[in-house]
Amino acid sequence: MRVFCSKIGLRLRSVLRFMRPAQLLQRARSVFVLMVLPGLAACTSPMAPSASPLTRITVQLSWTHQAEFAGLYAADQLGYFAAEGLQVTFVAGGPQVDFIAPVANGAAQFGVAQPADLILARAAGQPVRSIAAIYRRSPIAFFALADTGITRPQDFVGKKIRSAVTIDLTLRAMMARVGVRPDQYQIVHLPSEVPLFASREVPVWGGFINVFALDVQRAGYQLNFIYPDDYGIHFYGDVLITTDGQIAQQPDLVLRFTRATLKGWTYAVENPANIGAFVQKYNVGADAALENARMTASLPLVNTGEDYIGWMKPTVWAGMEKTLREQSVLTKTVTISDVYTLQFLNEIYPAR
Amino acid sequence: MHRFRNLTITTKLTWLFGLFAALLLIVVGALAYFSGRAAIEQAVISDLESTANEKQAALDRWLDDRLNLVVSITGLPANRARVTSLTRDKLDDAARQTLQAQTAQALAGFTGPTGTYAEMMIVEARAGQVIVSTRPENQGKFNEDRPYFIAGLTGPVVQNVVYSLDARAPLLILAAPLQADDGRVIAVLAARLKLDEMNDIILRRTGQRQTDDAFLVDTSHLFVTQPRFITDPAVLQRGVHTDPVNRCLAGNSGVLAANDYRSEPVLAVYRWLPERQLCLIVKLDQAEAFAPSNAFGQTLAVVALVALALASLLGLGLARTITIPIHALQDHVMRFGRGELDVRIPETTGDEVGVLAREFNRMAASLADKDAQLRDYAAGLERRVEERTAALGESEERFRSLYENSTVGIYRTTPAGRILLANPALVTMLGYASFDELANRDLEQTGFDPAYNRAQFVETIERDGQINGLEASWTRQDGVAIIVRESARAIRDPQGRTLYYDGTVIDITARKRAEGALAERHAVLSAVINSPGDMIIFSLDRHYCYTAFNERHRTEMRAVWQAEIAPGLNLLDLMTVPELRAGAQHSFDRVLHGESFTEIQHQPGLDIYYEFNWSPIRQTDGEVIGIAAFIRDITERRRLERERTLLANAIAASVNEVYLFDAETLCFTFVNDGALQNLHYTLAEMQHLTPLDLKPEFTAESFEQLIAPLRSRDQPVQVFETVHRRADGSLYPVEVHLQLFEHGDERVFLAIVQDITVRRAAEQEIRQLNAELEQRVLDRTAELEATNKELEAFTYSVSHDLRAPLRAIDGYTRILLEDYAAAFDDEGKHLANIVRDETQRMGRLIDDLLTLSRLTRTAMNLAPVDMQAMVYSIYHQLTTPEARARIDFRVSALPMAECDAILIQRAWENLLSNAIKFSGRRTRAVIEITGTATASDVTYCVRDNGAGFDMQYARKLFGVFQRLHSDKEFDGTGVGLAIVQRVVHRHGGRVWGEGQVDTGAAFYFALPIQRSPND
Which value does ipTM take for this structure? Predict the structure, then answer.
């Protein structure tokens, strides 16, 4: 720079003649501006932030935003994901959404799915796998008004039972387990509306204990519950899923995601009254009190007192496969140990 | 520090004693306190440890008791008999119910509010069904997956606290196997414990403490027993993540001072109970634990304070014995100081104080002597003052005369503006009759100078102490303005207060007037030479020294020569470049010889032209006394002149014909040389002509029609082709650009005309060539189409016709093998089999060829195709489950494509079967299908980790019958990739491959995105 300046000085002096200062000044000024401006520009160009950037991942949810995903929200809102170097985007599911496909084809790295769908997808050749079970008991239960005296599956004989596509399998399997034939009861598919339940048209209703059964209880009805879990049908509810490729190529990412999510669920279990406010961050129209109640109703599903939050057992997976096969829902061959992995749970909960 | 030095000795000594004592007490006290506190902490910890031991033991004892009871119940013969019957016998419903009721009745004695257990159940061993329960609603349920049942089949077991979905409560269950008489386990007896009992055991308190607390936590950080300080149900509903719990759940035991679940500081003993997979916490608030050490600390503090007070008193007494003699000494010295010069101190002691007294007495005697001498001296001084006063009176008289007769005005005022003195000269100067009249004027109210107020005057003089040569215009008493020069100074007392201002005033009105006239003439000259802002003006005397110059010149000199010019400076001295100085002096000398002249100077570096006007300055008698210079920058003027000339020459020399003709008369006013040469007219002849004379195709009306839109400014330019007629009557084609051109109030048309004779000829030629070419292309295309059709028909018929003889060969060979097997030896059979294999291979080859030829002929049917679905379905068609187990088949999200589904399926089939085929030797084959879309096309890739190929043969890949691998390695016809290429080409796409031997191959094909017609 100094050499350049002295050259400029020489040239200026050589053109200095008798008079004519205005042009000289102007020239000098423009040379000065030319020399200085790039320097200024270099000084003011913003420095890139040096903090290591978060890894962006997408999680496909299995339903619209609600307390069902409380642990994920808690992990997001309380910075558990950020602490693991993750920035998470949630994609809401819904009635028309295939929420395994986005995970299988890579649009989302992780997803929330039902074990039956997962086993069927795996049997169809999709390389998807469960890494943790969030609802370690199925949220499906059957209920009747307390004054009907219906307390066990055997009492369903000769009655109409409300069900839904997601509930049929559990109902049939439970009835088969207690030795009731399909022609001894009648399945009806009805929308989940409290007035329909109150009409007593259908005495037994199948539903989710943290959704419709909760709505009925909140409406003030006393209920008898019949849990499939007490009759040999042990299904997990929501499980976290990812792909074989993800596990093979980025095991560390899967570990971090699982660890943060389970930490979020631990928080949710211990602070159910804070969940409504979290849900509202993703679903502005959510009713905070209702979501808090849903979280509270979900507690025994997430925290069974056995093992650890998120834990899975090979026997339960084998049982689910057996039930699906008995009900002829699963016809193709599938190696059940390919449907889940305990790799990450074992790392998060080292044996004592 | 300074303050400490000023304290009395007594205070100092007392302070030092106190400080020393305090320091000692703090050190000793702290040591005592901390060792006491450590001892207390140790005691509390061992207390907590023993509590933890006791609780752990109590828990174990309780669980053992309860479990033993369950085991003994399983041994009750009546129970065993009933359960054996229930599980083994075929009973009718009534008998079964009776048995169940009896068993439940028997167990009920152990349950209920008074019993040991909350509930007892018998779960049959085969299916895990609850066959008897003291709670009838649980009868019939299946508990086959519950840990207590699974473990209980093999021996007594305690199942940790779990959350029951149907009971909606935490449960603690014990179980033991129930055996039939033959020793077989037929059921599990389970008992649900009352959690309140466990709570009581863990919470049981010694009563010695207030804040002791204990609880159990499970591996999920959840409370298993109710902690004391939580009132809501906390068991399995509240979590706890304190440091002791975290350490404990990591499998450790120990002690920790930390905050508990209330965030209170506590001392906590944590203990991991591996058998139960639970964490036991026993804790006590630190506030309570350390209460005794706090009390001890307080006692210590009181003792220390008392000791401190005593030490301070001791210090005070000690100091007193030292300070009493010093005080006596001080008293005498003070009296002496007040003037009692005869005071003497009794010299009683021999210590430091005694020595001090003796020295003092000696000093006092000496002082009394000096005092007498001083008194004499003062009397002499008084006399001399009286003599001086008389001399001063004389001097004052002399000054008074000067004051009265001076022509300079002399005054004295107070700072407030009252006039104390004014000599007669000043009184007259200001137009007053007497001093008294002047003295009435308050300067604060009405000064003499309206523009310079009194406050300013006072401020300056107070700040500087004086004012020198202040020139001001004063208004006399009679209204006449005079100009004065005033000097004044402030007279101050020793404290610095201003007493009054003394000043002198001189009337300088006459002198000022003479100066004014000269300045006016100078101003006029300056205004004149500065008024032409673009002109540099200066004048020099005979010695080249400045006599005048304008501002422009001053700034120029400053910028160019860094010289600050002033009248009297020699201009040549300021020019530091010798050549320039010599040139300038030459010009100056010419002027001094009486010459007036103008010269142009060019500055090559800046390309600037200056016009210098030099003229001599003459006296009235004609003698040259100086030089006047007027300098102007004429660069711009020269540039304009040059441009104009250049433009005119360019137009004149242009090959294009340029015409100007009057907008009204249409007569030519300018015609360039190019036009004159082409038309063979002279300029003089042209001036009598109009465009109509040159353009035979136009009439006056049609030409007027053409130029009307130009006249009305509706159109900026008219471009048209026509013909021009030369002077000799010959015609030539031209292209004319015509526009109206206004300059001031002159309106002319500008026509730029190009002779297009040559262009016309070229255009004609091109048209002719194009026509010929088109005809040739048509002929050739028709030829090609015919040949192609013939070829396709030939291929098809040949392929078709070849199949018949081939089938015959195959059939006859089979007959030979089946019917004449005996006639062949083994070699003969082998050869016949080869014939069959080869004919079948030939058949496949012909099929592929037929496919290939059909691909060319069938019509395309474009529609959006879901490639991902297609790929999955083809893959499943092509593979067996065994093959799929071997292949890691990965398909990413593939973009849709607009294509013929049947054709594209053929392409995929060939690519996928190749990938499967060539990766067949890998134990773990990987086939990966990917796709990307851009704005113009979609590209798909099939990649495998198979045998691959050498890139140098990449060009041969897509030819018919081109095979890079021998039949022995991989079976095939060599037509597959040709089919792929044909399909892709029919879509207007591209296909290519990449590979490496033994590493794998990737085949790509790109399909253009089909634009629908309305895009």
Answer: 0.72
